[in-house]
Amino acid sequence: MYDLYLWTGCQSLPPLRDLSESIPALADPVFQHRLVATEDWVPGWLDLDLERSLAQRCLKQLRTRQASGMMASRIYHQPAQITLEQAIQVARPFLEDLAAWHHASLPMTFERAARASLSPMGWVISAYEPRGRAEVAPHGYVDTLDRQVWSDGK
User: Fold this and answer.
1) Strand pairing of 2-8 and 44-45?
2) How confident is the model over 129-150, as a mean pLDDT?
3) Whole-prediction pTM
4) Which of 77, 98, 113 is the last residue of a domain?
5) pLDDT over 90 for what percent of the chain?
6) Which helix (H) or strand (E) holds 69?
7) Structural domain containing residue 46
């Protein structure tokens, strides 16, 4: 089963009538308020329990009103099974390989991460380039549950 995670809410409430039969929460005004970006809006899970195709349809509908988010298995509601320090160690060989593949001359260190944040499904790790060119440093994602590493660039 799947849930939706929103980073940004909708600019206005999208038409939800077609989906509300299958997702009763969409008819609830309190739930609808959670979908629309307001001054006090906070990113997070919508706490839905949906089949994959229904989650895809719902996210597509929310995106028509400029929401940004993702669908993921509800298993990711579990607390992270890996710390930032562990994620950096897991990501190091992958990012070194990625740097060699993309930026052969880029010196980098993993004594600290230039950027590290916890996304809904994993740690986002960026290597630190000592001369301050972190914008070209490779980055990867370490899954919080199974410790797999992946990147947009490889």
Assistant:
1) antiparallel
2) 74
3) 0.77
4) 77
5) 47
6) strand 68-73
7) 2-77
